[in-house]
Design goal:
47% helix, Rossmann fold, 639 residues, binds nicotinamide-adenine-dinucleotide, 21 strands, alpha/beta, 3 domains, 6-stranded mixed sheet
Length: 639
């Protein structure tokens, strides 16, 4: 007796358990009484039989439930395993009760049907009451969570959204609804959150659920799809953020921490480029690669991507000490051998020392001056760096046994209106005509987003300060590409290009700068009317739109995605050398119109008209370059 008391006591070590047991006693008593009433058409014959059996049944049920540990009281977590345990406990109790009544006590008046009805009723009550409690508790919990956390509507109900929903319970956000354009997902629930409509329905969904924030969970969305989504988000006037694009997702996993504001790159298009990585690897892995202009926007991304292909050694060559220092700090952790050289491509001796000391095999040249208006005022410097510096670099590389040489060119080289564009075109012509043991090629492309001095950070700053945004012309357009995409395509072009090729990257559709500014204002969260846009008129050397090809260039596919080959006329190397020597002489004299005029002889497509009455006196050729050796005609070409 004492032992039984102890066992029962050990079953209820705390008040909660005791309370749970009392509740079960009540439920079992109720279900046996109802079973009795049902069996006898709601009359109560032989009540003494029922009341004598009831304590025995209750005791056996309690023992059965204790055996399966069903008095834990954590009903919020009731699941299938609890339901199975209840089934086993009830079955065990019923068998015990039948044996006790019929065979031990010999009580045959207790109807067999009541055993069965009671079993079913007890089972339903025990399970039902737990399910009901779980629903009520969860509902109460979610309203508390909802009150304490920021509510969000998730855009997209795919894998990324599912990952996000799994993360959200551990964050400060509470998902209230999803929207998705897939009709098959309409009305379904993802992790208990309903798909309340399509993306188009977002304004209604926002009105119905009043979320604090919208989360875009479609990492595979194209630029066009993102544009549509943010247009709709914008109308709701609710803050919106996005998960990164597929390419930027680490291990493909979506986390709440990765959510960020939508940026212009997201709207530009996020089609993943399918690279022929093996061909790039064949050109880079195990070789000594030098990047000039390594600390610049394109150079630094080149270095970053090259390291993935495991070169034997990477030489980061740049004249800018601080930018190179920053690059060095950013590249810690790489297992490749990296050398940082503060050096100038126009310093031939230093160039030769670096290339020979490290046995450089591949040169990727991104060192250049690029700012159009600035170069209009500094013609000789533009030529010194972008033309003669390049020529020095090619000479030294060739004579030092390099095997591959790449020039980063620009769409400004096509039908140039600017002097800087002309220098890039002369570079292309030199690469395409200079006889060389090296495989020399150029890659031409349009603007990259976020490069140093590009318009977007400038516009963003103006928007932040609510200054007037200055656009030169309402119809001006430019090509844009993200730096990582451009650089990966540059490496692709480098790997497949042949000797003297000029390869051009497919830049997609040109973007109207006015639209770009409006989008940037929208992404900043400011109402359009708070930031003014003014038009200042095209600058003298500015084009309304850029070309990627000359009219005379025949373009053909290379077999690589987004990389074209051009074939056009180029002058002979000897003619070009002659003109370069004359240009060098003009630089020494330093009369801008004469320099431009000579440049126009090399690049007849240069949109520059000489001032009237100008007298062209040929400058005497200079004997100033040791480096050009026998390739530069030092004798006066005219005589
Ligand atoms: N940024 C663009 O949108 C874009 C688009 C197409 C082509 N390009 C071309 O790519 C090249 C690089 O552009 P970027 O945007 O990276 O420019 P950037 O100014 O960011 O980088 C150029 C780097 O070259 C270095 N450099 C310049 N002259 C040098 C010299 N004589 N010796 C050593 N280092 C020198 C600079 O210090 C700088 O770090 C340019 O030729 C440009 O015309 C740029």
């Amino acid at each position: 007796m004492i032992q039984t008391a102890k066992k029962v006591e050990s079953m209820f070590p705390n008040k909660n358990r005791l309370f749970a047991a009392l509740r079960e006693v009540l439920l079992v008593s109720l279900s046996v009484s109802i079973a009795w009433l049902l069996r006898f058409d709601f009359t109560l014959p032989n009540p003494q039989v029922l009341f004598a059996a009831m304590p025995i049944l209750v005791l056996l049920r309690i023992l059965g439930m204790a055996r399966f540990n069903l008095f834990h009281g954590y009903w919020r977590y009731t699941g299938i395993s609890d339901a199975l345990d209840i089934l086993k406990a009830v079955a065990l109790g019923s068998v015990g009760f039948l044996v006790a009544e019929r065979w031990i006590l010999g009580e045959k008046r207790f109807p067999l049907s009541v055993y069965c009805i009671e079993l079913i009723l007890t089972l339903c009550m025990l399970v039902g009451v737990r399910v009901l409690a779980r629903a009520v508790l969860q509902n109460a919990q979610s309203s508390t969570d909802r009150d304490n956390r920021k509510t969000v509507v998730v855009i997209g109900a795919g894998c990324a959204a599912a990952m996000l929903l799994r993360e959200l319970p551990r964050s400060a956000y509470f998902p209230v609804a999803l929207v998705d354009d897939d009709p098959a997902k309409a009305g379904v629930r993802l992790h208990g959150v309903p798909v309340a409509g399509t993306v188009q329905d977002l304004p209604h969904v926002v009105r119905a659920y009043r979320p604090h924030e919208l989360m875009i969970a479609i990492p595979s969305a194209s630029g066009e799809q993102m544009q549509r989504i943010i247009d709709i988000c914008d109308h709701t006037r609710v803050r919106f953020r996005t998960v990164p694009s597929l390419g930027d997702l680490l291990n493909g996993a979506v986390t709440v921490d990765q959510l960020r504001d939508v940026n212009f790159e997201d709207l530009l298009g996020r089609d993943p480029v399918c690279l022929d990585v093996d061909s790039v690897r064949r050109r880079i892995t195990g070789r000594v690669v030098m990047v000039t202009g390594a600390a610049g926007s394109i150079g630094s991304e080149l270095c970053h991507q090259l390291l993935n292909y495991k070169p034997l050694k990477l030489i980061c060559f740049d004249q800018g000490e601080t930018p190179l220092f920053n690059l060095q700090n950013a590249q810690t952790g790489s297992t490749c051998s990296i050398v940082y050289c503060v050096a100038d491509i126009t310093d031939g001796t230093r160039l030769r020392d670096v290339i020979r000391e490290h046995d450089v095999q591949v040169v990727l040249n991104a060192a250049a001056y690029k700012h159009v208006p600035l170069m209009e005022e500094n013609l000789s410097e533009a030529l010194k760096n972008n033309v003669f510096g390049l020529l020095d670099l090619m000479e030294v590389a060739d004579h030092s046994g390099c095997e591959d040489f790449l020039l980063i060119s620009s769409d400004k080289a096509v039908n140039p209106t600017s002097f800087m564009g002309c220098t890039k075109r002369i570079g292309e012509l030199m690469v395409a005509t200079r006889p060389s043991r090296m495989r020399c090629l150029s890659v031409r492309f349009g603007n990259v987003l976020g490069s140093q001095g590009s318009v977007i950070p400038l516009f963003q700053e103006q928007i932040k300060l609510k200054h007037t945004i200055t656009v030169t012309h309402p119809d001006i357009t430019r090509y844009f590409m993200t730096i990582p995409e451009a650089v990966s395509l540059v490496l692709q072009a480098f790997s497949i290009g042949g000797k003297r090729d000029i390869l051009v990257l497919d830049m997609g559709k040109p973007v109207r700068i006015l639209d770009l500014t409006k989008t940037l204002i929208r992404l900043s969260g400011l109402p359009q009317d708070q930031v003014k846009i003014s038009f200042t008129g095209l600058r003298p050397v500015e084009k309304l739109f850029e070309d990627l090809f000359y009219a005379f260039e025949r373009r053909s596919n290379t077999g690589a995605q987004k990389v074209f080959r051009t074939q056009g006329q180029t002058a002979s190397w000897s003619e070009l050398l002659q003109l370069l020597a004359e240009l060098r002489a003009e630089c020494a004299i330093g009369i801008p119109d004469r320099i431009r005029s000579k440049v126009k002889e090399i690049v007849p497509e240069y949109h520059w008209v000489p001032t009237e009455g100008e007298v062209h006196v040929p400058a005497p050729l200079l004997h100033d370059s040791q480096l050009f050796g026998d390739q530069v005609p030092l004798a006066n070409a005219n005589g």
